[in-house]
Amino acid sequence: MMKMHSLGFAGCILLSTVSLTVNAAAYTNLGHEAGAQCKTSGINDNGIAVGNCTPASASANNVPWLADTNTENSQVALKPLVVGQPCRALNISNAGWIGGACKNENNVNTAVIWNATTPNSIPTALKPLPGVVLPLRAADVKTIIMASNQRGDMVGWSISSNQELSTVIWLAGDDTPKRVFSSLLGLLGYNDKCVPVGVSDSLSNGYPSIAMNCPSTNGITIPQVAKANVTTYTISSLPIATGANRCYVKGLNNALQSVGYCEYPDTATNPVRTAAWMTPTTAPLTLTLSIKSKNAGRAINNAGIVLASRQDDTGRVSDLTWIPPAGLAGIQLIQPPTGAVSTQAFGIADNNTVALNSDVDQYITGCIWYPATGGNPATTNCLASIGGGKKNWLDTFSQSGGYAGGVNINNTQDMDAVAAGLP
User: Fold this and answer.
1) What H or E segment, with its residue span, contains residue 269?
2) I want to staple 38 with a disulfide (CB 3.0 to 4.6 A). Which of 2, 57, 206, 417 is the partner?
């Protein structure tokens, strides 16, 4: 267990000294129709999961699939873009749009979408940017999805034959790209090389807002938020924290609050800190812990609560949640469950629960952490392995916190794609 006195502030001590470990949810084995070794990659608030399997073959292609968490062995293979070519499912929105990637007949990777209501249909390829006549620019040749939202809007790259990266958005169910950096001046706005990391569900002029990290001329990454106006996107650079060299954004919510981290000179004594921007134009609130531990924001939910990781005084990584306007009083530490010494959280839902993996009795185990509320202590629900195995982990978490999915290693050491409905 972590040393509570080392944090040095009473509010955090009160919220972190007690954390009960319970087992309330159970995995559903989603089956192996699509292959022998399976993983869950996405799940929505309706309990519909997607993932990928490797068949029991030395040469067969990866097979993406769709399944219902509420039904054992419900896995259904998704169709490829081209017969005989591999595909991969990445995510599924609450609206049922599935984002993924397939190779076309030329073995070029192409972003695609399926719809959960028609799993037997061939996916739709998301088109790259078309060519330009004046000034001359050839059409791009491939596409990649980098982020998506619960509507099914996909954001990613349109890539040219010489590997120029232009950030684009495809609205839900639409294969036509829109450039995020657009301009009436020649070829300006192509090859921005930004990395999209988050997409809001809220809309401005019919389009969601986008968080991304973009290169600058001096080599320092700039965190930015793009918000649609009537005809194009307006790009706002998030302010850098006082004294920092650079900041990175990791995600944003529907109120356009965003989270990430900032890096400072002399990081041995001035370590990286979580940064939370309450608006795209205001300076970030940063998290400085009394023991000067490294910490970095990972996600923010629609309630404005931040999930962050930190390095403790043993050198191990653990996690916390933070209400930025409350300062240090807004922190809840996420204690490792019984039998574990560390946590690796990856998602915070809108009900403020956190999905994580931990080393319970030295076996990786998927868990859900529930915060302390109304005088009740925080609790951790660690999911028991099924099929006679000892290892399992979570990879995906629905936005509402109602479902989670991942992998279970069974007693023959095969990988089961699993998911669970959560209390």
Assistant:
1) none
2) 417
User: Token match 């209400």: residue?
Assistant: 323
Q: Which amino acid is at 302?
A: N
d(C-alpha 423, C-alpha 403), whole Å: 9
Distances (CA, A) of 377 to 14, 15, 17, 236, 335: 9, 7, 9, 40, 11
Residue carrying the six token digits 């997607």: 50
pLDDT at 204 over 50: yes
Q: Taking a C-beta distance cutoff of 8 angstroms, is the pair 113, 127 a contact?
A: no
Query: How confident is the model at residue 270, as a pLDDT?
Result: 84
- pLDDT tens-digit map of 29-55: 999 999 999 999 999 999 999 999 999
Please tell me the distance from the alpha carbon of residue 89 to that of residue 401, in angstroms, as a whole number: 21
Yes or no: say if 318 and 342 are a contact pair by the CB < 8 Å rule.
Answer: yes
Closest CA to 74 of 83, 65, 82: 65
Q: Round to whole Å and give the CA distance between 174 and 120.
A: 19
Mean pLDDT to the nearest integer, 54-60: 90
Please, which pLDDT band fits residue 24 given cuts at 50, 70 and 90? Answer: low
Confidence band of 22 (pLDDT split at 50, 70, 90):
low
- Per-domain residue ranges for the chain? 1-30+247-423
DSSP bridge pairs for 366: 357
How large is the C-alpha radius of gyration of the chain?
22
* 25-38 residues labelled b (16+ CB within 10 A) or e (exposed): bebbbbbbebbebb
Mapped onto helix, strand or coil, the DSSP state of residue 6 is helix
Using a CB cutoff of 8 Å and minimum separation of 24, what contacts does 185-188 make? 186/135, 187/132, 187/135, 187/137
Q: What's phi and psi for 243, nearest 5 deg?
A: 85, -10
C-alpha count within 13 angstroms, C-beta hemisphere, residue 231: 3
Residue 175: name the closest of 81, 302, 250, 82 by CA. Answer: 81
Task: Tell me the mean pLDDT in the region 140-158.
Answer: 98
